[in-house]
Write the structure tokens for this entry.
Amino acid sequence: MQASGSSCNADGFCSINLQFASVPSDKRLVLKQVSVLFTAKTGASVLPVVLAGGATKVLGNPGLFPFTEMRVPISRAAGPIVFGAFCTAAAPCDEWLVHQQVEYYIEPGSAPIVVPSADQSHLVPIFTEATVTGYYVPAS
């Protein structure tokens, strides 16, 4: 997995795109589980995690919608946490967690992308982890 970019929108929310390896050209990836753990300062507004990357073909046109996405609920797992320079006693942090079963398909040549988001004023530049679990089937 690699961070393929981060961005902030006009509403003040920032996201990081965590992209996994591309699916082989002769396979389809069936995702069954997604897990995400990230840290934000206590009081953060956190959006549901986006799972994306499954190419679609709508009415036979693969360019009409280049990918689908699924929103996965996220929960505050632990807090307040104090450690290091980023999460101090004066500004503690919370850990946010997704551990969700899914049924999500990634087409050949596409890559799974997991996108956690939080408001810009509560970001902590440490420890974002994501795992996806699934299996390949023939792309026929």
In short: The chain is about 0% helix and 60% strand.
